[in-house]
Write a structure and sequence with these properties.
The complex is a heterodimer. Chain A is built from no helices and eleven strands. Chain A starts with a strand and ends with a strand. In chain A, about 35% of the residues are buried. Chain B starts with a strand and ends with a strand. By secondary structure, chain B is mainly β. Classes of the chains: A mainly beta, B mainly beta.
Chain lengths: ~120, ~110
């Protein structure tokens, strides 16, 4: 099956710093990548949809200046949490799809802890 | 906003028993998918059922979809301790700009006791 990786798998940072999370599709070209966040014992909430070569589409309530998304190639999308604060601590998961009408393949997630 | 609601929120059974989880949603969909998540890990895709399908099987999994009731069920037969995980349904809403976007239910925590 299709494999999606995320890096790093976990990160701890100080409040006010920026953190970049990478999402890569390893064996297929992803026209669309999605970013989700998940709080403990809760479900996944879609943050944004990113298409290669175009601006990301953010869900209502998600600050695009805080969560910068870049989808520079068909195999890589990055999420940068700018000026992170403790309330940004969460589990961030990406998914990738090659034609967005079929299943999405999920990465293993990145645990962000902001001190 | 969350479209899907799942019940039960938690399910505890013995190995060998069947586990049934239900999912309800609110809007028209293109497809409904079931995922599994082990604690603190990513999601594993289990099965996708399209809006024009009523039932689908994959190994010990059986998924049904009733679009008139806007509901789906996931049945895991002959459960194993390794099936212990959280299970989520996710809907791909039809129409508009939602195409391809998944909305997840709240999930069911399944515990299978050996």
């Amino acid at each position: 099956g299709a494999v999606v990786s995320q890096h790093p798998s976990w990160v701890i940072c100080k409040s006010g710093t920026s953190v970049k999370i990478e999402c890569r599709s390893l064996d297929f070209q992803a026209t669309t990548m999605f970013w989700y966040r998940q709080f403990p014992k809760q479900s996944l909430m879609l943050m944004a949809t990113s298409n290669e070569g175009s601006k990301a589409t953010y869900e209502q309530g998600v600050e695009k200046d805080k969560f910068l998304i870049n989808h520079a190639s068909l195999t890589l999308s990055t999420l940068t949490v700018t000026s992170a604060h403790p309330e940004d601590s969460s589990f961030y998961i990406c998914s990738a799809s090659w034609d967005y009408i079929n299943e999405q393949f999920f990465g293993p997630g990145t645990r962000l802890t902001v001190l | 906003s969350q479209q899907g609601e799942e019940d039960p929120q938690a399910l505890s059974i013995q190995e060998g028993e069947n586990a049934t989880m239900n999912c309800s949603y609110k809007t028209s969909i293109n497809n409904l998918q079931w995922y599994r998540q082990n604690s603190g890990r990513g999601l594993v895709h289990l099965i996708l059922i399209r809006s024009n399908e009523r039932e689908k099987h994959s190994g010990r999994l059986r998924v049904t979809l009733d679009t008139s009731k806007k509901s789906s069920s996931l049945l895991i037969t002959a459960s194993r301790a390794a099936d212990t995980a959280s299970y989520f349904c996710a809907t791909d809403r039809a129409g508009g700009t939602s195409y391809g976007k998944l909305t997840f239910g709240q999930g069911t925590i399944l515990t299978v006791h050996p």
